[in-house]
Amino acid sequence: MAAPTATAPPPHPRANPLLGSALDLRRSQIRTYERVMREVGDVVRLTAGPPGMRIDLYCVFHPDGVQRVLAGSREGYTKGNRFYSEIARTLGWGLLTSEGERWQRQRRLIQPLFTRRQIASYAGLMAEEAALLARTTMALKEAMRLYPPAYAVGRLLVDGDEIGGYALPAGANVVVCQYATHRHPRFWERPEAFDPDRFTPEREQARHPYAYFPFGRGPRACIGSHFAMLEAVIALAVLLKRFRVSSGLADVPLDTQGITLRPQGAVPVHLTAR
Ligand code: HEM
């Protein structure tokens, strides 16, 4: 492939001439993203839908690009896309969906209630007890690397931009995909292997901050992340103290039709009392 120039549009995968990647995306969004990351590159243009009704999706997989999209400029990459208007229709223009001053006002008001210290105090946890749960936390983080509940987020690019040497046009639908970037082979050794030791504090520190972003990152990162982590770690630690959990399944089919990633149907597991 020729070296990209700033004016070149991102490459696209081989796709159905009539429908583009629509069928692949419909079958599995996340597997399509992951595949094109491996086969096409760090910035990929996916086209979906019949001629005349085509939608272009600009997918950004390299952590540098993810950083640009999530933290480059709030005015440049907005939530003014179809995905967020749909959410706003049901949830209203709250912290998750609002923009500009309205967002800033709400974020400033709520943020102090959600700091790590504040959350630990709600749970009556002392710092020492929290440290005991470190192993469980590492396992949970690794589980969310492989199976990020929020598997992709999108932005509307207001003006044009350049990412990784490729031109993205004004009005582009830009997607960053946790599921794909969390398996980026340049940032994760043996990406498919479950290995909680990836999340020792030293290894976390050494990693590109945008190689792992289950709670998003940048100014619009999840405000509930400490709360969610604490709740999940405590629930898991209490469960594992009483039971051994095993499953005969090698692979869990995933459902990506909703906003969050979940298993397709119930996952059978065996609980054995300790
Ligand atoms: C495992 C649980 C959770 C996951 C994986 C998660 C994931 C995320 C992600 C990826 C974003 C960024 C969306 C974007 O950039 O477009 C986000 C934003 C947000 N999350 Fe969460 N979240 C979780 C739990 C929670 C909880 C428990 C709360 C509330 C207590 C919460 C409230 C919010 C809010 C208000 C925002 C928008 C923040 C802003 O735009 O300023 N989340 N979340």
Major beta-sheet overview: 5 strands, mixed
Q: Provide the CATH topology.
A: Cytochrome p450
What do we call the CATH homologous superfamily?
A: Cytochrome P450
User: Which distinct ligands sit in these coordinates?
Assistant: protoporphyrin IX containing FE
Q: Which second-level CATH architecture applies?
A: Orthogonal Bundle
Helix-strand layout with pairing:
Layout: H1 22-27, H2 29-39, E1 43-48, E2 55-60, H3 63-72, E3 77-78, H4 82-91, H5 100-110, H6 116-122, H7 127-132, H8 134-146, E4 153-157, E5 161-163, E6 166-168, E7 173-176, H9 178-181, H10 201-206, H11 225-242, E8 243-246, E9 254-255, E10 262-263, E11 270-273
Parallel strand pairs: 2-7
Antiparallel strand pairs: 1-2, 3-4, 4-7, 5-6, 8-11, 9-10
The protein binds protoporphyrin IX containing FE.
Report on this structure.
- This protein has 274 residues and is of the alpha+beta class.
- Helix content is 37%, strand content 15%.
- The protein is built from eleven helices and eleven strands.
- The chain has helices at residues 22-27, 29-39, 63-72, 82-91, 100-110, 116-122, 127-132, 134-146, 178-181, 201-206, 225-242; strands spanning 43-48, 55-60, 77-78, 153-157, 161-163, 166-168, 173-176, 243-246, 254-255, 262-263, 270-273.
- It is globular.
- The model has no long low-confidence stretch (mean pLDDT 89).
